[in-house]
Amino acid sequence: MSVRSVKFVLCAVLAATTLPVLAKEKPDPYVPASGAAVDCVQIQSIRSTNVRDDRTIDFIMNGNKVYRNSLPNSCPSLGFEKRFMYKTSLSQLCSVDIITVLWNVGTGLQQGAGCGLGKFQPMEKAAK
Questions:
Q1: pLDDT score at 24
Q2: Residue 18 lies in a domain
Q3: Which residues of the chain have pLDDT under 70?
Q4: Which of 56, 86, 89, 111 is 20 to 30 A from residue 17's alpha carbon, by CA?
C-alpha cells in the first residue's frame, strides 16, 4: 500500500469517527397524538412546514396543530434542501399528492425529485 493510500484511508477513518460528533440531532419535539391519521389537510390552514429528514415533514397548522407526514419512500435531497413545492387543483393537500424537492442552484431554485406523500398523523408536544 502506498503512502498516498495510507493517508487517504487515515483521513477517511478520521472523518468517519468525527462526523457523528459534529452532526448533533435535535430531539423530536412531538409525539403522536390520539386519533387516526387523516388523508388530507386544508391548504389554507398550513402556516408553515418543517422538513425533518428525507422522509418526514411536519405541517404546522393555524392554531398550532401539527400533522406529521411520513413519506412512504425516502425523497432524495429533501432533508438537505428542506424545501419543496406542490401543485393541486383542490383546496386540500392529500396523501395521493406529489411534492417536488426544490434545489438551490445559486441563481435560483430548480425542481428535483418528485415524491409521494403519506397520511397526515396528528402530533402533540412531547412532555418535558
A1: 57
A2: no
A3: 1-25
A4: 56
